């Protein structure tokens, strides 16, 4: 009887130990609740700050701004629901919705500026989309536009899914010129294009910036051109690509009636700038013997050459860097690839070897049938839905569209356009999809 009782006690103890082991093991396997919340959920106020709600038969209207959103500074562009400008100064609140934590504020953000007036809304949203598709680090977009386009930009950017909106912030600014006659500046070339000249003056809190025209598309990460900033020497403060590779067929080398940079001039459609250096530099010129600051230089330079410039603000930049060549870093043609690089025969060796990094569809190349290769790339990015498989819904349709362009001058070498897109998507796929399993210990 004693032996039977001892056996029962041993079995009970053993069962209790098994039960404790099972409970402790399960608890150890479960992640902390805090980690689950960080990965899979957001506080109620962190949804899209301005959501466009669409109802059948009714016009879209904006929802109320979250109570947690900071109030606008009365001295800056006012936040409104009727097409007014969002805050010109970047806040600790992501304009796309997510609050920016202290750690996020310390991250190394990239800054991209664009000036969009007239009918450039859709083109600009496609540009921003291309930057977000391939880039690694987060981006702050600085959008300069007319009052009528402020609300449409806000609506367009707020429609993108959360996993995209969490990777960028944006601010919308009015078109302003700190010196001279605003109407003259607006009509200098294309509507509002001269605004780019005033970015160092307006964005005083931004150290470095990439400016691009609205008709630009990124075919590899913005991070890669951003890295050129580290290659600047002690005097360089901006970077652009040459206007042409061959002087005999270049515009500036044949027709310019004003000074220009180098042998063929530079194209300002893609311009990387160290704004801090620009603001602190005195620029040599042919008007006075002493140097002038960037802001003090712009209007006198325009007054002197106004009857001799054809391409507006780009000509003024060429004049500035003609007298200050030590200030400019030039990057290869594949970082600003235009129809001129292929319509007269292929003359951008860098694009042939590495593929196009940034596509610049100037002169309306994306919107007519004169350059079907350029239009094929634009349409593929414009039509791509963010949540779809990028290979199936972007790259494969793009390959198919290029079959119809192989008989054109720019489409006859499709790898120039496709090489970087394919390479970048493979890299992203490896980073985000492929799970690397650790080797088992021997």
Strand content: 5-15%
Number of separate helices: 17
Calculate Rg over CA atoms.
27 Å
Silhouette: globular
Number of strands: 11
Arithmetic mean pLDDT: 79
**Structure classification:** alpha/beta
Distance between the termini: 51 Å
Task: Summarize the entry for a quick read.
The chain is 38% helix and 12% strand.
Task: Write a structural description.
With about 450 residues, the chain is α/β, with parallel strands linked by helices. The protein has 17 helices and 11 strands. The chain has a 7-stranded mixed β-sheet with strand order 5-4-3-6-9-8-10, with helices on both faces. The model is unreliable at about 20-85 and about 85-105 (pLDDT under 50).
Q: Could you give the topology of this structure?
A:
Elements: H1 2-29, H2 33-40, E1 52-53, E2 61-62, H3 102-105, E3 110-116, H4 121-134, E4 139-145, H5 147-158, H6 162-165, E5 168-173, H7 182-186, H8 199-202, E6 208-212, E7 216-218, H9 222-226, E8 238-242, H10 251-255, E9 266-274, H11 275-280, H12 294-305, H13 313-323, E10 328-330, H14 349-354, E11 358-360, H15 372-383, H16 390-402, H17 415-432
Parallel strand pairs: 3-4, 3-6, 4-5, 8-10
Antiparallel strand pairs: 1-2, 6-9, 7-11, 8-9
Helix pairs in contact: 15-16, 16-17
Notable characteristics:
17 helices, 442 residues, alpha/beta, seven-stranded mixed β-sheet, 38% helix, two-stranded antiparallel sheet, 11 strands
